[in-house]
Task: inverse folding
């Protein structure tokens, strides 16, 4: 009986796994699936353009082929560096292949799944391959790309190959079981928020009814490029350490391996580790390290006082850019932006949080009530809000302390962007941030800091309104009082009225200035 059971034993590739479990990649629900397709190609385009030093220009075209069958054709075009012919198939047709997963570098994508997942989704819903046009270093390649699911390998057919002066990538694919809607979870909202967090990018959307919308760039300069950093010892597990050691070729000794592979490990720190692990041979080859030795090293790491990892590797949106974006889209009555110093989570992974809070003005006109806009490395997170650390943190806020009586009904928009070399997503769909204690605390502190500015503004506005109301009420009696005083004193009523008005004006202007001074301190 047991032998019969194992006759069904099979091996499966990662492509087969995600083909059967595509909801894990975010392809669940018709509107969400279409938005995820745009998300994957847009983030890749932004990363590629920024790494090449090109101001991004992205075109997204949605064409409805059959409404009854929820059948669409998607075209996403960018002006990035393009993809070399030798990497085109793997980039668009192989799971877990790319330039991101293995690097400690702040990027929007980090798994090497997204683009290939879209190729997979197109094929399993329509039976059609994905068409790609890449222009890279003077060469233009047109190819059809599909996936061999059993092998997790790309199937590429080159259709054309010629010269080209421009650069960029255009991907066209058909999809079923998707739907275009102008909702809070649709493509339009996703691209609008992408433009908000990436003001250096110009994005054009052509909708199924041929209506064209352009989100123009408000900044004519790319942000500073993040640079790759080494992993910090405090963020390592024994398994991580063994993996790095196994692939170390240039380091012949464990001591040099530690110094050359990890951040903040100097010769002095190696000597401290020697004292903490006297039985460990630091002259042995790194690839000979055992699990027990790795465990002892990781334990020793926690006993050493380390300098924090390099923080200038993180590139936020930036205060001026957030202000420009919010003003461009909402033109709010008041805007507060907070950008705090970087911190670390899990002992050694650097991250930082930036928060923008817009109140009133265009926020009211757009009927955005109590809106929370979540971002990770400048990428909008539209889905899975209930399981996200950002949402959970906002829920725990006592908004009444900041003169926000009911967050759900106030004209307020909150932008929260988590920046890190490794964003702790809850799943491969990358739409929610896990409940890391250090991250949640920093989000809360950042929101509280920005909220205090909103509190001061609302308090000042409220006091100004109260003063104006009192002034108006008293002003109603000035004319009659002037007339009565003039009769009693046998004086000029008009002159008395002018003096009373001047007295009221001076008193309430002084009270307003005193109130403003108190609020600003």
Result:
């Amino acid at each position: 009986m047991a032998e019969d059971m194992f006759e069904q034993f099979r091996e499966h590739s990662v492509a087969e796994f995600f083909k059967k479990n595509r909801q894990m990649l975010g392809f669940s629900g018709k509107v969400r699936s279409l938005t995820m397709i745009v998300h994957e190609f847009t983030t890749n385009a932004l990363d590629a353009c920024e790494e090449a030093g090109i101001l991004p220009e992205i075109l997204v075209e949605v064409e409805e082929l059959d409404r009854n069958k929820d059948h669409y054709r998607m075209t996403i075009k960018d002006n990035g560096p393009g993809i070399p012919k030798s990497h085109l198939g793997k980039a668009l047709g192989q799971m877990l292949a790319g330039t991101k997963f293995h690097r400690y570098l702040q990027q929007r994508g980090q798994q090497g799944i997204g683009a290939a997942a879209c190729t997979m989704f197109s094929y399993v819903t329509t039976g059609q391959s994905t068409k790609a046009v890449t222009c890279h270093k003077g060469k233009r390649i047109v190819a059809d790309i599909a996936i061999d699911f059993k092998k997790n390998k790309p199937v590429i057919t080159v259709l054309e190959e010629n010269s080209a002066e421009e650069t960029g990538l255009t991907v066209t694919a058909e999809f079923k079981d998707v739907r275009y809607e102008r909702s809070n979870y649709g493509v339009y909202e996703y691209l609008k928020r992408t433009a908000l967090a990436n003001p250096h990018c110009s994005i054009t959307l052509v909708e199924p009814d041929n209506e064209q919308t352009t989100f123009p760039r408000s900044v004519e300069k790319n942000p500073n490029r993040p640079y790759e950093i080494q992993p910090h010892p405090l963020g390592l597990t024994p398994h991580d350490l063994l993996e790095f050691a196994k692939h170390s070729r240039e380091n012949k000794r464990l001591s040099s391996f530690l110094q050359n592979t990890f951040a903040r490990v100097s010769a002095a720190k190696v000597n401290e580790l020697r004292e903490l692990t006297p039985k460990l041979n630091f002259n042995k080859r790194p690839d000979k390290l055992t699990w027990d030795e790795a465990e002892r090293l990781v334990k020793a790491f926690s006993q050493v006082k380390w300098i924090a990892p390099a923080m200038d590797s993180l590139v936020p949106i930036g205060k001026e850019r957030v202000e420009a974006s919010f003003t461009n889209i909402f033109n709010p009555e008041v805007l507060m932006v907070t950008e705090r110093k970087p911190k670390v989570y899990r002992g050694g992974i650097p991250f930082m949080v930036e928060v923008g809070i817009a109140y009133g003005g265009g926020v009211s006109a757009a009927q955005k009530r109590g809106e929370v806009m979540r971002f990770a490395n400048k990428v909008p997170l539209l889905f899975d809000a209930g399981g996200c650390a950002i949402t959970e943190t906002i829920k725990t806020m006592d908004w009444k302390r900041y003169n926000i009586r009911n967050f759900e009904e106030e004209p307020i928009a909150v932008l929260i962007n988590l920046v890190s070399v490794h964003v702790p997503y809850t799943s491969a769909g990358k739409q929610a941030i896990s409940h890391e204690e250090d991250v949640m605390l920093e989000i809360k502190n950042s929101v509280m800091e920005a909220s205090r500015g909103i509190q001061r503004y609302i308090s000042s506005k409220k006091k100004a309104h109260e003063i104006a109301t009192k002034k108006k009420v008293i002003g109603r009696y000035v004319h009659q009082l002037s007339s009565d005083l003039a009769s009693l004193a046998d004086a000029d009523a008009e002159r008395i009225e002018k003096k009373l008005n001047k007295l009221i004006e001076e008193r309430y202007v002084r009270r307003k200035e005193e109130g403003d001074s108190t609020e600003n301190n």
Notes: The first helix runs from residue 2 to 5. The mean pLDDT is 86.
